[in-house]
Design a protein that fits this description.
Helices cover 66% and strands 0% of the residues. The protein is mostly helical.
Length: 134
């Protein structure tokens, strides 16, 4: 009887260890699946705008970057407006940035300037839009 109980306890212990090992493996796999790296797949022009790197923005435009291309639903002008980067916003406008484009949420660059309290960017956008109407 003692041998049966001891063997049962040992078998139960091995099954619990095996069950825990499987659970840990499944958790590791699901955690790996949840990792995302949006910056690794970002658009270089957008990243230069967000970082405020005027020279890189100019160089990327010279190399043919699309100033109206969306990344994460927003154009480079929207990012420049959001971060109140007036110098970059002027470069984008001079190179054909469409200020009337809307993001995936339906907002324009002017909206992002307004909600971010980016007064310089909002002024530049308003002036650029009024020039296009004339």
């Amino acid at each position: 009887m003692k041998k049966t109980i001891i063997l049962s306890v040992i078998a139960l212990a091995f099954s619990v260890v095996q069950l825990n090992a499987n659970t840990l493996n499944n958790q590791s796999a699901s955690q790996k699946a949840e990792i995302s790296t949006p910056i690794a797949f970002s658009n270089p022009l957008h990243m230069a705008v967000v970082q405020g790197d005027l020279e890189t923005v100019k160089r990327l435009i010279e190399l043919g970057s699309n100033v109206n291309e969306k990344w994460n639903g927003m154009t480079p002008a929207m990012y420049a407006a959001r971060y109140n980067n007036a110098a970059i916003l002027k470069v984008l406008i001079n190179n054909g940035a469409n200020l009337k484009l809307k993001c995936d949420k339906g907002h324009t660059a002017k909206y992002y300037a307004k909600v971010s309290h980016a007064t310089d960017a909002e002024k530049i956008i308003t002036e650029a839009l009024s020039k296009k109407k004339s």
